Amino acid sequence: MTTTLPAYDEVVARYEPVIGLETHVELGTNTKMWCGCPTDFGGEPNTRVCPVCLGLPGSLPVANKAAIEATIRIGLALNCSIAEWCRFARKNYFYPDMPKNFQISQYDEPLCFDGYLDVEVNGELVRIGIERVHLEEDTGKTLHVGGATGRIHGATESLVDYNRAGIPLVEIVTKPIPGTGALAPEVARAYVTELRDVIRSLGVSDVRMEEGSLRCDVNTSLNKPGEEWGTRTETKNVNSLRSVERAVRSEMLRQASVLDAGGKITQETRHFHEDTGDTTPGRSKETATDYRYFPEPDLVPLAPDTAWVAELKAALPELPRLRRKRIQQEWGLSDLDMQSVVNAGAVELIEATVAAGTTPAAARKWWLGELSRRANETGVELADVGATPAQVAELQGLVDAGKLNDKLARAVLEGVVAGEGSPTEIMTNRGLEVVSDTGALTAAVDDAIAANPDVADKVRSGKIAAAGALVGAVMKTTRGQADAKTVRELILERLGAQG
Amino acid sequence: MSDLTRLSAAEIAGLVAAGETSAVEVTQAHLDRIAAVDDRVHAFLHVDTEGALAAARGVDERRAAGEEIGPLAGVPVAVKDVLTTKGVPTTVGSKILEGWRPPYDSTIVERLRAAGTVMLGKTNMDEFAMGSSTEYSAYGPTRNPWDLERIPGGSGGGSAAALAAYEAPLSIGSDTGGSIRQPGAVTGTVGAKPTYGGTSRYGLVAFSSSLDTPGPCARTVLDAALLHQVIGGHDPRDSTSIPAAVPDVVGAARLGATGDLTGVKLGVVTEFTGEGAEPGVLAAFRESAEALAKLGAEIVEVSCPHFKYALPAYYLIAPSECSSNLARFDGVRFGLRVGDDGNRSLEEVMSLTREAGFGPEVKRRIMIGTYALSSGYYDAYYGQAQKVRTLITRDFTAAFEQVDALISPTTPFVAFPIGARTSDPYQMYLADLFTIPTNLYGGPAISVPCGLSEGLPVGFQIMAPTMADDRMYRVAAALESTVGTFTPPAL
Predict the structure, then answer these.
(1) Which of A275, A415, B159, B263 fits a disulfide with A426 by CB distance 3.0 to 4.6 angstroms?
(2) Nearest residue to A497 via CA among A429, A421, A445, A419
(3) Which among B84, B239, B321 has the least Cβ separation from residue A300?
(4) Where in the numbering of this chain does the Asn/Gln amidotransferase domain appear (chain A) (predicted)?
């Protein structure tokens, strides 16, 4: 298609978007939803399976209590009501990555419902309504071999790996989100980011979009101001936070161009393409399967004890947004500075470094400076850069004790990242410690004075500022291993000047 | 030597425990009997000769070593082919699972092994337990030892016929709408459907999850109770399993055998003793009820007005669940695969596999169930049937406020000739008219032989409240003590 898309500004001037997000989170329980198989990512195909998760004849599911607990905690963190009584339901459809040809899910009785999540967009709080949070099982993975696209169409062979089948999956569905206007793409991204942080803070999933433990479908529609909401499309294959934003934007532009041309939006599933930033149609919802939901007869109803739910609620960790507010105050950061800490993914790292005895300012300097630069260069997450908060705190301790200056400290940090050991070990092994032997320093100072008689005279005559050139010369001969302040004091003393 | 195949399980267990016979001798006697008669009866789909003899040797060795050998050690048992048996073929009477050897044992089979029983093999059944005559087995019908031209009931015709033909003293069945009790009734044997959740469904290939109940089959009430005791009880692998001990069914059977029912109040289900049942069946039932009265039981009439809706409700709920349960048979992971020639699409292969693998009755029920669960029809069919289920449960609850147990004939008619009801599904469905309400309610019920009509056995059904399985055993044993057991003509 070579249709020229309208400009985004024009689109949001003419249309109002309504978005909605369906997020799937793979829980990090030790075992699968209905059996005792492990849930670790990867593994040789079809090695983490048993009669239950393979859906062999005669096998039966038994619900994983840890998964139910994790789901309730997610629901509580999203301000949901928790069902006093609900059931699992079978969603029937034929697909080879579904061992039983039905998925055990929840239908009209979700475990958690009617909540909200507040997210910050451009300093403004936006309240996203949560329709439901329910628990289901993941499917296996199908690999289509021989086709050009990796999709089933055109493939000569399809291989199925059931290792993922039966891993507990939580589905979180927002209510429709109207009224965000031009900010719709940012709101979508901010919501998924915040949701990810909330779930991570609960410790129930590693929520890694790249590994598929957090998956997102984005619903988008456009309507003219004052008119009813438009027909929505559901965009799948949105695999990063950036893609969430791009997918909404791209779908808004595409729908606007269709509507501008007098066309109608088809209710359908679309696929997002990371490379082009476009969406292409998938299966049409109009011919969608009738899933023939009915209550799962192999499982008993779920009736979480209210006292237990209350306990879980009381034990919830501080929510990321509130925690960030508190930390920002404690660290005395401006909104902008805090934002850069958050964007760098450095909140927890700085917090841990501060806990190990470093001042917030120093901790922030290391993580957002030298270490962020290295992370960017090597393309890894800041947390995986190779230095731990404890090491950073130790490094700063050496600086505070006068054993390292800034330049030496950066050299030691390089050694830390390279895995050479603790900062103290590296300092000793590489001989990077500040020269504090005044005898050796005095000799270096005398050499510098002798080599620069003009400068020395200026200092003697009261031009104290000129001493800087002598300090520089001493630092040069000691290859930076001297403490500049000590050097300066020595020079002034030798020249009989007052500092 | 007396014929070991004519002994009860209790007698065999006693002789083996006392060392008066060996498990191998007992097992060999039954294997010989199977070899002699099963080409005519066709109770077995698979005889595990080597496995049985190995298990029997194990029992004899443990006994010789003075080890614990289990309460039913050395007693042969035949297992309905609906239960998975590790490494031993499990077909559910269907072509779609031909040749499948499960990698795991069902809980029932595990418990049978732990009790020291010797599994002889797998018995014939209507495909996926759907039927009342075993004529819908993909491997040919089982014949009734009382008259080889007649059906042995179904779906567990193989398990019942194996008992009546003296091929096994014990067998396991599964009862979704009467598949243990009705075959018991028409073969003159005892068949008990435990409380739903009282026996584990783990490893029972599902037909209708909310109704399927595995249970014991035997030639005497005490034997059924002994088997029930061994296979029953909580199983953490089945979420619907009741976390409670098995009621004392063995004690109840022994108490009942004393022939005293003083203080027991029984309710004759009015709706099941009018038209719809053969006169000979009704006559045998009435005589037996009078016999129970002579043993001290008080007999009253009890109306259960919603029982008449049980059959239609059942034929919505069971097919609905089956349409989903049987979806996994698609040729992808196990069993039959048809049409995988490298050119056909996945959907075509699934479709061809199911077309070839399922028989007509299974297809009929999958289609009914798929329709009943469809969006727009769900409320009118599945939803409505669930409401009827609630009303039937209320009928039972109300009845058990008046009486200790309900009684009725097990099935409206004696064993019918092979082929007599296959052309009209409804005529076949009527065989379960009296047994289905219990499944919808979830309580226990037992069929015990009570007489003959036209020379064929008639079954007497006793229905008890949930988890009061012991109550039905007491009444059944009392009835047995007064009417005796029934032996078919020699094969």
Answers:
(1) A415
(2) A445
(3) B239
(4) 348-495
